[in-house]
Design goal:
The complex is a heterodimer of chains A (273) and B (267). In chain A, 36% of the residues lie in helices and 24% in strands. Chain A is of the alpha/beta class. Chain A has 2 domains: 183 residues, Rossmann fold; 73 residues, no CATH class. A 6-stranded mixed beta sheet of chain A has the order 8-9-10-5-11-12, with helices on both faces. In chain A, strands 4-3-6-7 form a 4-stranded antiparallel beta sheet, with helices on one face. In chain A, helix 3 crosses helix 4, helix 4 crosses helix 5 and helix 7 crosses helix 9. The longest helix of chain B has 35 residues. Chain B has a single domain, classed as MetI-like fold (Orthogonal Bundle), CATH 1.10.3720.10. Chain B is mainly alpha-helical and 267 residues long. The two termini of chain B are 14 Å apart. In chain B, helix 4 runs antiparallel to helix 5 and helix 7 crosses helix 9. The chains are: A alpha/beta (273), B mainly alpha (267). At the A-B interface, strand 8, helix 2 and helix 3 of A face helix 8, helix 9 and helix 12 of B.
């Protein structure tokens, strides 16, 4: 059954002193090959409870492959991904995924509320309870009134909010997002970035965002993991010390923001050349 | 809002105009048939007036109405069987690649046997009651539904499959609420073909070794050179075919309303 929202399970403290329900995630020596082509080689990273990690890298570097391995959708060729100390072999209930293509990942034959509640049906939760839970999660992402609409009646940004609500309703403590805002217009994108920051501080979840947008990565992240090379591995970990409260204008004009951004960019450029 | 879409709107908005749009050609054809055949003395081409009179007589006083229900019941039974089996196997074969590799060569061979060719065989094997007629309809309608369902499953966006596995949707729920729905537009296209084919096979199946039904009525009257009755049966089947496809369009529009609307929304 559903865990109550504020249940005190084993909590973890991260650097900022936030009590998080999210289990830590550790990736050890992860490699992934398709046939004879090695895409990722010996990749190590970790996600502390309540952290926002952004994985950046040039297009085609294997970011999506990494994310599929982290989610348990695809087994690694060697190495391991463990969550809360256990090696994952299949998708976990602790992990909610938001896909890049919101149009393709929401079901057009279900109303928004049903879309959000559907994964709970798979767990055998009764209709009334799962719809209540789904409505709460729609409230959380600012879509209280959209439950009876179909996804295709909503804008792209709203559809991606529905996808986020669905991951939250699943009771995920780790949110995996694959280029989540890549196909949205700039303004919608900024709003959703702030939603992610807000969800993290309210729900104490860990968030892993794969993106090719360096500004977005630095703005969101507590730590930016720079992926580069063929096969790809982690070439830099940039701790972004900009605090928990960020603002699209103030934070982005902070000299330290520019410094972080330039560091990430130069890492990507360096490996590319 | 362009002038063109305004014009379309006007067409849609007025039911009178759209009725004319849908019916002008059939009405002209029926009127032409009526007047050109009026007073016909030809043995093979009686006037439409006589055909309709005989049709009415045999429907109200003769056996034609009960024949019609018998034929339609066989057709419905055959269609239901083919839909259930075609969709079930189509979903399984479409979803599991190994099953597809194992079965498709044989399925492709079997479906290339023309259905009419097996009618005599089936009647010899299954006798002359309803069973062989239902079997022939079910077997023939199975193929378009099966193949369309397989295509529908394979055409599903891969993100939906990822979504289902990421959220650990159990197979029973996945098949019913994801795979079936994703394939539904294609399945309906398959059923649409099947309905047309079923009508043909319904008639052919009753040409051989039958003692009732619309096909029997046509065939028997032909054999005793009762041409007006033969025409009447043919006209009735044509009308039924039209009615069935009209009903099907309504069902399809209802079942796929989300699909048609989302297609428009994405334009």
């Amino acid at each position: 059954m559903i865990r109550p929202k504020l249940q005190t399970v084993k909590t973890h403290e991260n650097g900022d002193g936030v009590a998080s329900k999210a289990p830590p995630m550790v990736v050890r020596d992860l490699s992934k090959s398709y046939g004879s082509i090695e895409v990722i080689s010996g990749l190590n990273m970790h996600v502390d409870p309540g952290e926002i990690i952004c994985i950046v890298g040039p297009s085609g570097v294997g970011k999506t492959t990494l994310l599929r391995s982290l989610s348990g959708l695809m087994p690694p060729t060697s190495g391991s991904v463990s969550v809360g100390g256990k090696v994952i072999t299949q998708p976990l209930e602790e992990i909610g995924i938001v896909f890049q293509d919101y149009r393709g990942s929401l079901m057009p034959w279900m109303r928004t509320l049903e879309n959000v509640a559907f994964p709970l049906q798979g767990r055998g939760i009764g209709k009334a309870e799962r719809e209540q839970r789904a409505q709460e999660c729609l409230d959380t992402v600012g879509l209280s009134d959209a439950g009876q609409k179909y996804p295709w009646e909503l804008s792209g940004g709203m559809q991606q909010r529905v996808a986020i609500a669905r991951a939250l309703a699943y009771d995920a403590h780790i949110l995996l997002m694959d280029e989540p805002f890549g196909s949205l217009d700039a303004q919608t994108r900024l709003g959703l970035e702030d939603l992610v920051l807000d969800l993290r501080s309210r729900l104490k979840i860990s968030v892993i965002v794969v993106t090719h947008d360096i500004d977005e990565a630095v703005y969101l992240a507590d730590r930016v993991v720079v992926l580069a090379g063929k096969p790809a591995s982690v070439v830099d970990n940039v701790d972004v010390d900009l605090g928990m409260n960020r603002d699209q204008i103030k934070t982005k004009s902070d000299p330290r923001f520019v410094e972080y951004r330039n560091r990430v960019l130069s890492e990507i450029m360096r490996v590319r050349d | 809002m362009t002038a063109d879409s305004n014009r379309k709107r006007l067409w849609r908005a007025s039911p009178g105009l759209s009725l004319i749009q849908a019916w002008w050609l059939p009405i002209i054809c029926i009127l032409a048939w009526w007047f050109l055949s009026a007073g016909s003395k030809s043995f093979y081409f009686p006037s439409l007036e006589t055909i309709l009179a005989v049709l009415w007589r045999d429907l109200t006083e003769g056996p034609l109405l009960s024949y019609m229900w018998i034929s339609l019941a066989n057709m419905a039974a055959g269609l239901v069987i083919s839909i259930v089996l075609g969709v079930a196997f189509g979903l399984l074969i479409g979803e599991f690649g190994q099953l597809r590799d194992a079965l498709m060569p044989m399925l492709n061979f079997l479906r290339s046997v023309p259905p009419a060719a097996i009618v005599p065989l089936v009647i010899v094997a299954l006798g002359t009651d309803a069973a062989p007629k239902i079997f022939i309809i079910a077997l023939t309608c199975f193929w378009p539904i099966l193949l369309n369902t397989i295509d529908g499953v394979r055409g599903m966006t891969p993100q939906l499959r990822d979504t289902a596995s990421a959220f650990k949707i159990p197979y029973s729920l996945y098949f019913r609420r994801v795979l079936l729905m994703a394939a539904l537009p294609q399945i309906m296209a398959g059923i649409r073909i099947a309905v047309a084919v079923a009508l043909v096979l319904m008639v052919i199946g009753e040409f051989f070794g039958a003692s009732e039904g619309l096909g029997f009525y046509i065939n028997e009257n032909k054999q005793r050179f009762a041409m007006t009755e033969t025409w009447a049966g043919t006209v009735l089947i044509g009308f039924l075919g039209y009615l069935l496809s009209a009903i099907f369009v309504k069902i399809e529009a209802f079942a796929l309303s989300w699909y048609f609307q989302s297609e428009n929304a994405n334009d």
